[in-house]
Structure formats: C-alpha cells, structure tokens
Amino acid sequence: MTTSFNPPNRILLGPGPGNVEPRVLQAMLKPILGYLDPVYLQCLDQIQKLLRSVFETENRVTFSVSGTGGAGMEACLANLIEPGEEVLVCVNGFFGQRAAEISERWGAKVIRVDSEWGRPVDMQRVRDSFRRSSARIVVMVHAETSTGMRQPIEQLKHLRDVRDAILVVDSVTSLGALPVGIDRNEIDASYSCSQKGIGAPPGLSPVTFSERALEKIRARKEHPRSWYFDVLLIDKYWSSERTYHHTSPALMNYALREALEIILEEGLENRWARHERNSKAFVAGVEAMGLEMLVAPEHRLWTLNAVRIPPGVDDARVRSRLLHEYNIEIGAGFGSLKGKIWRVGLMGCGSTENNVLLLLAAMRRILESEGFRCPA
Ligand SMILES: *Cc1c(COP(=O)(O)O)cnc(C)c1O
C-alpha cells in the first residue's frame, strides 16, 4: 500500500526557503536533458549570463554549484584557503561563526573579529586586525540571517590600502533582493543560494570568482582537498571545455534560470525597492503594535526582519498558532537569540504588501489572545 504526500500551501515568511512562483515550478516539469546535450548547455550559458547581471559582475567564472548555500560556502573557502594561512573572519551572528568553522576545517588559522549579534562589525577593528595579521583572505557575511543585520561590504575594498586582500562575501540572503554589487565593491568571491532572494527551490548555490581570486587558486601548492567543490574542475564543465565533472541537476537549473529571468524582467532596482518598501511597511506595523526590532534602522536587512519577542509571550506557541491557524511560517531565533526574536523573511515573491498585511493582522490577533496588550 502506498500513500500520497500532500504538503500544504504555506505562506513561507521565515528565513528561507521562500515561496516560489508557479512559473519557476512549471520550469521543473520540462523534460530532463543529458548534461552534455547542446540544448542543455544553452540553459547553462543563459544561467551564467543572468547570474552575472544579478551579481553585477563581469566575472567569467560565475555559475551555480550543486548543493544549497552551504555548498557554495565550502566551494569558496576550500579553493581559496591554503592549509596554514591566516584568514580573517568577521563574526556577528551564526553564519559568520559558520564561516569561521569551515575556514578552520580547510586548514586556516582563523583570526576572528567579533561583534555583538545584531550589531555591525566595526570596520576600524577589521582594518587593525588585518594590518596586524598576515591574512590575505577576509570573509564577511553581507546579510546575517540569524540577526537581520546588513554589513557595509562597500567598505571592504579599502583594506587594499594595507595589502592585496582577497574579499569573500556571503550573499546568501541578499542576492536578488538587495544590491550586492560584486564589481563595484571589488569583491573577489561570493556565494549565495537559490531559495532566498532569488526565489527558486533550495538546491543550488550561485558563486562568482574574480580574476584575482582565480590567480590565488591557480597558484596553490597543492590541489584543494575537496574534489567535488574544486572550482577549476567545475569551471571546465561550465566553460568551453565541457569536461564531465558531475551530473548537472537539470531540473534545478531550469528553475534557477526561470527565477533569474523573472528577476531581470522585474528589474534589479525595482526589486530592491520592493524589498525595501515591504520591509519598512512591516516594521512600521510591528512598531505600531508596540513591538521592537532587534537591529538599528540604518543596519536593517530588507529580507529578514528580526522582531524582539515581548516579555511574557510564549515564543513557540505564537509561531505554532501562526502555522496552524494562518498557514504562515516565521522563523525562531537561534544561538544567543533563541527565544528572544522572531525572524520574519520577506524575500523573493514573498515580499508583498498582502503578506505584510496578513502577517501583521494575524500577529495582532494571536498576541492579543495571548494576553499581550497592543496599543489601540
Ligand atoms: C541560509 C544561509 C546559509 C546556508 O545556506 P543553506 O542553503 O542553508 O545551506 C549561509 N549563509 C547565510 C547568511 C544564510 O542565510
């Protein structure tokens, strides 16, 4: 006896995955092609071109790594880091901490510049640590999904006054929803994911590498320890050589292609403005209810909005009621923010005025029935 599986149609307003447009899902119903089929290769060429536009880069080596955001993370760090070298990692949340852990696993001597979760890492301290160290690689999370805080990656390039830095940026929760500007900000390597700002299902990780990053990789004394994430091998498949490396996940790449197409149809500037507008509307509504945001206004992300849980309110109960009574998923806090914040994702096609109004109304009704007094 088999039974069918019927997942409900949730409104996904957590830290990701976000909802996916029907057009993207439909793209996944198309016939699978072999990984060397000339028609499939056209799809990959289009993805590279579309990704360059969304990353705002001319980098030739720009493609999707098979796997979620964490795969792109491994791909960037495993290739750039040579065992024993110092790597400077900025940590003010869970994903900065993960970058430090992964760097260490690939053999780096990690130098951490820590800051309180929810506050920006002080660029003067980054600069001082960089100057005192022998590090070339500097890793920073652009959009820290664990806290809803945006880092000023625009300032990283000034580290080159000190030394020829290799700048690595986590754009997992920013790409496709707020400006990343790889070339403008002189970022050398960046990894993202398909399921947050881009609006495709989870399973692919867009990455991009500058010529300076590739030079460092080509100059390695030994191959990267990871074969699967060896960027030079993967590039041989994506570029003109078309050498087999692994079976490219066709349906996922169709979905990514479609989602990127949708982004450029909307226009990058329009899309950023939509994310900004809906985030600000949500914050205004939350504050009118008497709740507070975790992050100061000038450092807030538009994709991930961290709301402080008011004292006396049961975190898990509110989230469970949102899910069961309103079909809405929001995220919990974790690490040092567990039980202290709710994480509300407004990303991709989920960033709409309707979703904002619906969530605010649902939160108000639940909070009031849980005994929290909202101002009139
Ligand atoms: C989600 C996320 C990741 C990891 O991505 P997965 O797709 O879960 O592997 C890495 N960095 C940041 C900032 C994220 O938000």
Write the layout of secondary structure elements.
Layout: E1 11-12, H1 22-27, H2 38-55, E2 61-66, H3 69-80, E3 86-91, H4 94-105, E4 109-114, H5 123-132, E5 137-141, E6 143-144, E7 149-150, E8 166-170, E9 189-191, E10 204-209, H6 211-218, H7 231-238, H8 250-266, H9 268-288, E11 304-308, H10 315-326, E12 328-329, E13 331-332, E14 341-345, H11 353-369
Parallel strand pairs: 1-12, 3-4, 3-5, 5-8, 8-9
Antiparallel strand pairs: 2-10, 6-7, 9-10, 11-14, 13-14
The chain binds pyridoxal-5'-phosphate.
Residues 16, 68-70, 73, 95, 141, 143, 145, 170, 172-173, 193, 202 line the site of pyridoxal-5'-phosphate.
Write a compact overview of the structure shown:
The chain has 376 residues and is an alpha/beta fold. It contains eleven helices and 14 strands.
Walk me through this protein's architecture.
By secondary structure, the protein is an alpha/beta fold. It folds into 2 domains: 22-264, Aspartate Aminotransferase, domain 2 (3-Layer(aba) Sandwich), CATH 3.40.640.10; 268-369, Alpha-Beta Complex (Aspartate Aminotransferase, domain 1). The chain is built from 11 helices and 14 strands. The chain has helices at 22-27, 38-55, 69-80, 94-105, 123-132, 211-218, 231-238, 250-266, 268-288, 315-326, 353-369; strands at 11-12, 61-66, 86-91, 109-114, 137-141, 143-144, 149-150, 166-170, 189-191, 204-209, 304-308, 328-329, 331-332, 341-345. It is globular. The relative contact order is 0.17. The chain binds pyridoxal-5'-phosphate. Residues 16, 68-70, 73, 95, 141, 143, 145, 170, 172-173, 193, 202 line the site of pyridoxal-5'-phosphate (PLP).
